[in-house]
Design a protein that fits this description.
Strand content of chain A: 15-25%
Order of helices and strands of chain A: EEEHEEHEHHHHEHEHEEHHHH
Oligomer: heterodimer
Helix content of chain A: 40-55%
Distance between the termini of chain A: 47 Å
Distance between the termini of chain B: 43 Å
Order of helices and strands of chain B: HHHHEEHHHHHH
CATH superfamily of one domain in chain A: P-loop containing nucleotide triphosphate hydrolases
Radius of gyration of chain B: 23 Å
Structural class of chain B: mainly alpha
Number of domains of chain B: 2
Number of strands of chain B: 2
Shape of chain B: globular
Chain lengths: 286, 272
């Protein structure tokens, strides 16, 4: 399904001394099967934006359309919608509460009113998705797990609802490189299996590796939107937004400045390596 | 979702009321509360209300913020009014219907007590709206420091209070976030009977407690890392100093109390 934002503006505590506008006239569309990376410096409105995508926040003005239907219309079942658009908050491990990992993951499907055997099947599938061994972890208390495992258990809690679109707000924040790779690998698998993914991230390298489209936000508006290649080619705009570009793109630019004849739009380590090797074989100075 | 509680919430604008010394503000608030209990007439209440309104304007705080602070107390106000209304033993009978008797004394008591409660809450809300929690606990600590002689833990109490106040907004944000996270997993906090609703709170309360304990641990660690060891020998960044504004404010409240007393002597007519 597609999610579209039309001229969405969101103001917190409108009309008081605490008033602040987090989104200004944002329009964008997320198509089926995309892997969208949402980037921008802290406080640019990313978290506010993702909460609009499943109806947790209502726009102050503008519309959120899911499959062309206004999300805040009178006869839309927002609870049902939240099960189709799964949202994983920042530090989702802070939402764990049940006695066992399995029970916690079952919370979502149980709220959907599914039969017991289906719930059990979904818990097993979700745990397999996040690489938590069912036999080993299902009966444990979620509070006994390590940080990375807690994070994955919490993500499994959203996956168990089997949403067709999964939104994650900085899923790798505060994890060690190993935990980070596991989460990213898991997202890659989910995307390959047909789930639409929207990921908020601060790591341009992760974005370069995974995303099919990048949306750059700055002070509540959409600054750039396009394929990673298009977006990372705008190095100046990205630097100005306080984001920079992936390490490979920076290296490529530095080499070009020194006269190495590389194409300008390389942004992943693999393609940069290929290009350098090609130059080397051709006997060009490197 | 949870931003309709104003008690203990600071309203961050610049004004002459915000700039007053917190010690003076605390004492004047107490004086104002005492003054409210001296009032015996409608004119007196009008004076207090006028004073509160004027102070509110001077503080650049919208008056409805003050009224919003009353909302959580509406049932207590109603209860105070109703209980006093029906349970007066003597006085002229105004209305009698079956077992319900309303006497003049009851009506007067009901009005007095609920108005006093109303002004008491408004006065203290005005204090917390115009004084940051840090200033407030600084002021409290200094006002209570003479009691250290009898081993009263003034500093510890002030520190506890400022930490508690400091964490109200944090915990509110946290509650909001956890609520949303559980709603994203299909939790429903709004429908069902009492038992269903109480059960629905578990996914909210467990993570909230876990995070409160985690925060408390982190905070204790951070305080120790910065060599906190109680109030002994601690100096302050902002030394409280009385200014001209404090004098004016004290005079204003003294004037109000004077007016209330004079009005009580000159017009000893009761509420009407």
């Amino acid at each position: 399904m597609s999610i579209e934002l039309r001229n969405v503006t969101h103001t917190y505590s409108a009309g008081s001394a605490f008033q602040s506008t987090a989104l200004r006239d944002v329009s964008l569309k997320i198509e089926d099967g995309e892997f969208v990376a949402l980037v921008g410096h802290t406080g640019c409105g990313k978290s506010t934006l993702v909460q609009h995508l499943n109806g947790l926040l209502k726009p102050t003005s503008g519309q959120v359309l899911v499959d062309g239907e206004d999300l805040n219309g009178a006869n839309v079942n927002r609870r049902e919608l939240r099960q189709r658009v799964g949202l994983v908050f920042q530090y989702p491990e802070y939402q764990l509460f049940e006695e066992t990992v399995a029970k916690d993951i079952a919370f979502g499907p149980r709220n959907q009113g599914l039969p017991e055997d289906e719930i059990d099947a979904r818990v097993r599938r979700a745990m397999a998705h996040v690489h938590l061994d069912y036999g080993k972890y299902a009966g444990r208390s979620p509070f006994e797990l390590s940080g990375g495992q807690m994070r994955r258990a919490a993500i499994a809690g959203v996956l168990a609802m089997e949403p067709s679109t999964l939104i994650l707000d900085e899923p790798t924040a505060g994890l060690d490189p190993h935990g980070r790779d596991r989460i990213l690998g898991m997202l890659q698998e989910l995307h390959r299996d047909g789930t639409t993914i929207v990921m908020v991230s601060h790591s341009m390298d992760d974005v370069a590796k995974l995303a099919t489209r990048v949306i750059v936000m700055d002070t509540g508006t959409v600054l750039l939107s396009g394929t990673p290649r298009e977006v990372f080619a705008q190095r100046e705009a990205m630097d100005k937004a306080g984001l920079g570009v992936p390490a490979a793109a920076r290296l490529c630019a530095a080499l070009r400045e020194r006269g190495v004849k590389l194409p300008s739009e390389l942004y992943t380590p693999d393609e940069l390596r290929e290009a350098i090797l090609r130059l080397w074989k051709e006997g060009q100075p490197c | 979702m949870l931003n309709n509680i104003t008690i203990g919430q600071y309203y961050p604008v610049k004004s002459c009321i915000h700039d007053l010394d917190p010690r003076v503000k605390i004492l004047l608030t107490i004086a104002l509360i005492v003054a409210v209990f001296l009032v015996h007439s409608a004119i007196g209440y009008a004076l207090v209300l006028g004073f509160l309104y004027l102070t509110c304007r001077l503080a650049h705080v919208p008056f409805r913020m003050l009224l919003k602070g009353l909302k959580p107390l509406r049932w207590i106000l109603v209860l105070t009014f109703v209980l006093n209304l029906f349970f007066a033993a003597d006085g002229d009978i105004l209305l009698q219907w079956q077992f319900i008797t309303i006497r003049k004394q009851g009506l007067l008591n009901a009005l007095h007590y609920s108005l006093r409660l109303l002004f008491l809450v408004m006065g203290t809300s005005l204090l917390t709206l115009t004084t940051s929690p840090i200033q407030l606990s600084d002021g409290m600590e200094m006002l209570m420091s003479p009691l250290k002689v009898i081993h009263f833990p003034a500093h510890e109490l002030a520190m506890m209070m400022s930490i508690a106040l400091r964490f109200i907004p944090t915990l509110m944000d946290e509650t909001d976030k956890i609520m949303k996270a559980q709603m994203a997993r299909g939790a429903d906090f709004e429908s069902g009977n009492l038992i269903a609703r109480a059960k629905a709170m578990v996914p909210l309360l467990v993570p909230l407690f876990v995070s409160a304990f985690r925060r408390a641990g982190d905070l204790a660690m951070a305080m120790e890392a910065r060599c906190y060891h109680g109030g002994e020998g601690r100096t302050r960044l902002r030394v409280l100093k009385l200014g001209r504004g404090d004098l004016w404010a004290s005079l204003a409240v003294a004037g109000l109390i004077g007016l209330i007393i004079v009005e009580g002597i000159v017009l000893p007519g009761g509420l009407w």
